[in-house]
Amino acid sequence: MRARRSRSTAGWVLTTILALALTGCAIGGDDGTIPQNALNPAGPVARAQDDLWDLVFPIAIGVFVLVQGLIIFAVIRFRSRGGDKSLPKQVAGNTRLEIAWTIVPALVLAGVAIPTVSTIFSLATVGEDPINVRVVGKQYWWEFEYEDPQYEGVVTATQLVIPEDREIQLDMQSVSAQQPYDPAVVPEGTVNPTGAVSLGVIHSFWVPQLAGKVDVMPGHTREMKIQADDPGLYLGQCAEFCGLSHPNMRFSVLATTAAEFDEWIAAQAEPAEVAEEGLAAEGQELFVGLQCVTCHAVDGHPDNLGLRIGPNLTHWNSRDKFAGDILEVESDDDITAWLRNPQAEKPGAQMPNLGLSDADIEALVAYLRTLD
Ligand code: CUA
Fold first, then answer.
1. Taking the model in full, what pTM does it have?
2. CA of residue 173 to ligand 1 center, whole Å
3. What is the 3-state secondary structure (H, E, C) of the chain?
4. pLDDT tens for each residue of 268-287
5. Is the CB of 203 under 6 A from ligand 1?
């Protein structure tokens, strides 16, 4: 008897542990071991959302335990016993109970609604001096354009750089940047300011440590704000299935000090240097010959068309990762593998397999390395 009981206790403990593991229940993460822990907020927006969770979750647990407890109690207390097949006593209606179970949940919901609605409103207000960034979700990477006049012309991809302790207001939309804007063929209303046609899908912008997720739609502008308390790298990802490479549509937010941010902006606003000779110059020529310029902008390139179908590469080396934050900029192997067959690295990407020779790739890598 005792052996059976201890076995069933072990069963319960195991089930509980398994359930926690399966729900991804994680505690801590201050040491960076859980880089996408929404319960470890790193800025005021995420903190306000986390505070709301701290309030609502225990209430939800209370309701869960109460309801499940009553169900379990009823199942055990009123089970059929000893072959008794007769109907139990039938009860119809109990005014006091019905009033109670209408009013109590209504009060609980009203109580939860007050902090929820006030948090929603406070997160929708923007302070005096935000930095405005346009976020464009494409298949499968994120483009960031700094919209304020003092940051004019700064367009980057995959890594959003922000200063610490500063409100960042994001205007977000989704496009499928398959063709450049041509007013003759594009119906009105399907065009967004990047000049690409909106055939896009829904993405979702999510940096768990900085803010909750917001869906990013074609043809609509959604807004959200984010803010980081301290310098650091905060990982984000697309959180809405958007096609084959949805899991490869990652990004990061790099928070820096205010001084580092100003330095970064100044460097980003500079055009790239023109490669005059050697392998890099060959690569620069190939960049036109292979039609890379018809998708990628490189400010300063002699034949730059300024198009934004692919990521702006002007300061490509200033980022950590590329190709949706899955490959390392520093790694020649990664960039070589990407140029050899982008589809193998990121299925469904817009970047075609150009059938490049080893010599082409070497020259292109040499050119890309000049873009810092
Ligand atoms: Cu974009 Cu999933």
1. 0.82
2. 12
3. CHHHHHHHHHHHHHHHHHHHHHCCCCCCCCCCCCCCCCCCCCCHHHHHHHHHHHHHHHHHHHHHHHHHHHHHHHHHHCCCCCCCCCCCCCCCCCHHHHHHHHHHHHHHHHHHHHHHHHHHHHHHCCCCCCEEEEEEEECCEEEEEECCHHHCCCEEECEEEEECCCCEEEEEEECCCCCECCCCCCCCCCECCCCEECCCCCEEEEECCCEEEEEECECCCEEEEECCCCCEEEEEEECCCCCCCHHHCEEEEEEECHHHHHHHHHHHHCCCCCCCCHHHHHHHHHHHHCCHHHCCCCCCCCCCCCCCCCCCCCCHHHCCEECCCCEECCCHHHHHHHHHCHHHHCCCCCCCCCCCCHHHHHHHHHHHCCCC
4. 999 998 888 899 999 999 99
5. yes
